[in-house]
Write a structure and sequence with these properties.
The chain has helices spanning 2-16, 29-35, 53-63, 66-77, 95-111, 175-192, 209-212, 214-225, 280-296, 322-326, 377-394, 492-495, and strands at 22-26, 118-128, 131-141, 151-157, 201-206, 230-236, 263-268, 305-308, 331-336, 404-408, 411-415, 425-432, 442-447, 451-455, 463-471, 474-475, 482-484, 499-501, 512-533, 539-557, 564-572, 575-584. The protein has 586 residues and is of the alpha+beta class.
């Protein structure tokens, strides 16, 4: 079945690849001026400015409404088919009707908030499923300070589909994929337009995701071509479901009908061969996790945990954050821990079928009750809060610092220069590359100084350190990480080696598998660890091994590993020198 599905995808891709969007333009000229930062902020300031971090935090936590979310999802469902190539004329059915409804709702939010929310379509031309003209729906909240023209982008795609990529006759409720992301964007546009932010926020409902990310490609192209800087892009896709499907794409879903309403995954890019997961995208994910733990969870009845995922997206899948990353923007994807399908439209999984409905009984309280609400409003509400608080804090945050790192014995000295010295308040995130963790091991706070000294050397451990400016209790994004090597370890023998972890056999395995490490030179390493981590970076196995030049074979047992995909790392004297993947059968 999966081979047939792959062939089907290739045929679809062949039919629409080679095309690119043209005639990309905004329907509202005012929107262009605001996105470019060419406007008078006083003309868009509210009569009462509400922008204190606590006001934003408590306001978003208290104002996200489960009832509103349910009503929006039911309204979206009523349009029957939201395929990118569906009807654009009808007022009650098809892609045109739903985008006009979203546009009207954005207009209503603006009227309720002194007309501060500027609405526009982003038009573009490309042939997709018989339609050649398409429209993203945008709402823009102008920032109060145009001296730094970076904007924030929140997006979710509003199109959906059945198993057939261009089936415009089927019933496509698309409640999980991606009605959940659509109403997330709408609800935050409604709430956040009450507040004032230093930076402009762009709320975007995009189309054409299910045929090739066309809406996000058009939007990212428009912003790049017009030299509009972006501080961060939050993409939300499949963000309200709590039930695991049979074919759910790895990593993350433990098995059919498993329920999880307390975790969410953040996918983001880092270079394939960068075992330390050092990238601006991963730093953005760490920033969000830090705020979830420190600011948001204490206010929630049900705390949420963020799983920072090694990969940019689910294996074999893609999302609307990727075109932005490809344009050089910092971008991440929020997705539920559990996903009901792999996009193939294979029953009984609901994704890309007519069964991707809101729920079977809309009168029963949803949280944790299987077969009642498939898109859980309580879980979706918590994910909306997560997005909104971090979006709002970043929109009032200071810029990323440019620290200078130097070593003095066993101490790292961090010096802040120029504009960064005005804050005299900084947070330092510390990670251990040795542990393979994707999260900050610790975050330290320093005030009334512009020079920071941190003792960092622990035998056999390599540290990664980054710095954030702090203004009015709000952190900037953390700087690029600085790698600190432990004193006394000579890494020069590693620099000229090629070390590879070969594919294990059998793969996937049920009891035990054999993995081969190939070393290019005749060398003897005895202080070596073979580390097995899950997708969140949590260490599950640390196996001491001895490697020499040539092929080295080691055995790994299933004990302590559930079904899924794991990262295997080879660590020599505290340095990760090679990575591989293994799969454990369900």
């Amino acid at each position: 079945m999966k081979k047939l599905y792959l062939i089907h995808l290739l045929l679809i891709s062949a039919a629409i690849q080679g095309l690119s969007q043209s005639n990309i333009s905004l329907s509202n000229p005012e929107a262009q001026q605001i996105l470019s930062g060419n406007y008078d902020p006083a003309g868009y300031a509210p009569s009462t400015v509400i922008n204190h971090p606590d006001s934003i935090l408590y306001g978003i936590v208290s104002q996200v409404s489960k009832d509103t979310l349910i009503s929006y999802l039911m309204k979206i469902d009523s349009y029957f088919n939201r395929n990118t190539g569906s009807d654009t004329v009808s007022e009650t059915r098809g892609i045109g009707a739903v985008r006009r409804w979203i546009y009207r709702k954005f207009g209503e939010y603006s009227q309720q908030n002194e007309n501060r929310l500027i609405t526009s379509y982003l038009d573009f031309d490309i042939s997709v499923c018989g339609q050649t003209h398409h429209r993203n729906v945008l709402a823009i909240l102008p920032g109060l300070d145009t001296s730094n023209k970076e904007i924030m982008v929140l997006e979710g795609h509003f199109d959906t589909r059945c198993q057939g990529a261009c089936d415009t006759a089927c019933y496509t409720p698309g409640m999980e994929d991606n009605g959940s992301g659509t109403v997330l964007v709408m609800e935050l546009a409604r709430i956040m337009s009450r507040y004032a932010f230093s930076h402009t926020i762009l709320f975007a409902c995009v189309t054409g995701e299910d045929q090739g990310l066309y809406g996000s490609k058009a939007l990212s192209t428009y912003l790049k071509n017009n030299d509009i800087p972006i501080r961060a892009v939050f993409n939300n896709d499949v963000i309200g479901g709590i039930i695991c499907g049979n074919t759910s794409s790895p990593p993350g879903c433990p098995g059919l009908n498993a329920i999880d309403s307390t975790h969410v995954r953040i996918f983001s890019y880092s270079p394939y061969n960068d075992s330390s997961q050092m990238s601006a995208h991963k730093q953005l994910a760490r920033y969000i996790r830090l705020h979830q733990e420190e600011r948001i969870n204490p206010l929630l009845e049900t705390p949420m945990m963020i799983d920072i995922i090694i990969y940019e997206d689910r294996i074999g899948r893609s999302g609307d954050h990727i075109p932005f990353r490809q344009k050089g923007y910092t971008a991440i994807r929020f997705t539920s821990r559990n996903e009901h399908g792999n996009g193939s439209g294979t029953p009984p999984d609901r994704q890309h079928t007519s069964d991707d409905i809101l729920g079977l009984d809309l009168n029963v309280p949803p949280d944790g009750i299987i077969d009642t609400f498939f898109v859980d409003p309580g879980y979706l509400r918590r994910n909306i809060i997560m997005n909104g608080v971090n979006l709002g804090l970043l929109a009032i945050a200071p810029p990323i610092p440019s620290p200078e790192f130097t070593m003095a014995g066993d101490t790292v000295i961090i010096t802040l220069h120029d504009a960064d010295t005005v804050y005299r308040h900084y947070r330092v995130g510390i990670r251990s590359k040795y542990s393979g963790t994707l999260y900050f091991d610790s975050v330290l706070t320093f005030t009334n100084t512009t020079t920071i000294r941190i003792p960092v050397v622990v035998s056999g451990v390599r540290r990664l350190i980054s710095v954030a400016n702090v203004e009015n209790t709000v952190e900037s994004l953390f700087s690029q990480e600085y790698a600190i090597l432990p004193v006394g370890i000579d890494e020069s023998p590693l620099n000229n080696l090629t070390i590879r972890i070969m594919q294990n056999y059998p793969n996937p395995f049920s009891v035990r598998t054999e993995i081969t490490v190939e070393v290019s030179e005749n060398i003897d390493f005895r202080n070596v660890i073979l580390s097995v981590t899950d997708i969140t970076g949590r260490i599950l196995k640390r196996i001491p091994v001895h490697i020499v030049g040539g092929k080295n074979r080691f055995s790994i047992s299933r004990e302590g590993l559930e079904g899924g995909i794991y990262l295997v790392s080879l660590i020599v004297s505290g340095r990760v020198v090679a990575n591989g993947k293994i799969s454990v059968q369900e």
